[in-house]
Amino acid sequence: MVEHWLIIGASGGIGRAFVDQLLAQGKQVSAISRQPLTEKVANLAWYTLPQADAPETASVLTTIFSQPVTAIVLCQGWLHGDSMQPEKTIRQLSALAMQQSFQANIMSPALYLQALFPFIQKLPNIKLAVLSAKVGSITDNQLGGWYSYRMSKAALNMLVKTTSIELARYNKTASLVSLHPGTTDTALSAPFQRNLPEGQLQSAHATAERLLPVIAGLNPEQSGQLLNWDGQALPY
């Protein structure tokens, strides 16, 4: 049977790279995005949803899960925009930046996991990866700054950990993890690439290429963990 993957946030840099890589591997792909797809692509079903709790979300997911799903990747994220940049000091913190960051980085993934839960609790060996960030690790934080982004990603990691515990009560074969993709050349990281060590910045294609085997190889013992792009566990 051909593997069937669901990519949520499919129009972003990493999300679209996942779609392209999976299609190149001969997989069946369902994709959800706020942006429509203008062309028809073989083995790709593209669904446009404005937000996770849209009225049509349930029917879209029912259609997607009418055939077995192998793995799900949530690729939502926001770091800067609308004249807002990551805070270097708490003096720069604003309610607007926090609201924007929490809406994209925690509220949307949380509502998608809620909508997905009735389906994933029944699927044998389902694998779910939620793209997070190493800067959301409280233990690893030695530099400070980036308040809104760090807080929202730490909350995202707690969402994944808590959901993994509940999911295991219904589906002991499921694997749900937070996944740090590494620094990727996308619009999200573009303003912060100047002083990166050589070799640290990866193309979206390279990021998807190295993350897909990690996701495909997930097992229930890893569920609830924050994983690095190479599959190694990171501290919360």
Summarize the structure.
The protein has helices at residues 13-24, 57-64, 95-120, 147-170, 204-216, and strands spanning 4-8, 28-33, 44-48, 71-74, 127-131, 175-179, 226-227, 233-234.
Task: Summarize the structure in words.
This protein has five helices and eight strands. Strands 3-2-1-4-5-6-7-8 form an eight-stranded mixed beta sheet, sandwiched between helices. The termini are far apart. It is globular. Helix 1 crosses helix 5 and helix 3 runs parallel beside helix 4. The longest helix is centred in the middle third of the chain and has 26 residues. It is an alpha/beta fold and 236 residues long. The protein has one domain: Rossmann fold (3-Layer(aba) Sandwich), CATH 3.40.50. About 3% of the residues have low confidence. Helices cover 35% and strands 14% of the residues.
Biggest sheet details: 8 strands, mixed
Count all strands and give the number.
Answer: 8
CATH level 3 topology: Rossmann fold
Secondary-structure element order, as H and E? EHEEHEHEHEHEE
Considering DSSP H and I runs of 4 or more, what fraction of the residues is helical?
Answer: 25-40%
Uncertain parts:
187-193
Rg over C-alpha atoms, rounded to the nearest angstrom = 17 Å
* Main β-sheet, spatial strand arrangement: 3-2-1-4-5-6-7-8
Number of domains: 1
Strand-pairing-aware structural class = alpha/beta
What is the helix tally? Answer: 5
**For the terminal residues, how far apart are their CA atoms?**
37 Å
